[in-house]
Amino acid sequence: MGSLTIDASSKDIRAGAEIIYGSENCYNHSMELLHALGFPDGVMPLKNLDECGLVRETGFVWMKQKEPYEHFFKGTNTKVRYDSEVTAYVEDGKMKKMTGVKSKQMMMWIPIVEMSVEEGDKIYFKSIVGIGKSFPFAAFGEEEEKKDVEVEAK
Fold it and tell me: Phi and psi dihedrals of 75, rounded to 5?
């Protein structure tokens, strides 16, 4: 019975969504969304997307990819893992209540729950425990996207 509630709530938060299918269409849509929010291109380098969606009324977005993968951002010296599905609520300059994104810190995977644009062209990343760190936009340039390392789905 609990799974029925979860399924119903999942459908409810996606009600009225604009849904995009296909790798190229989803990639283009996600880049347009990042630009509209004020983020640089390379901050969410998801290219193998199957589906993405946006509920304009609530700001809920999701991106589904074929399998999870890890990406090393040379500019921040950070490894990030993107699950098969990444979700967030978006507003100008901010992605909050994020799921499916983890950063490797001191040999532990720490969930990232929020990222926001700060003055001076920086991005602030907040962890699930409320601790965060800022990085310059330049750390997420296009060349970073070439550093993808796919991992097997678990």
Answer: -65, -20
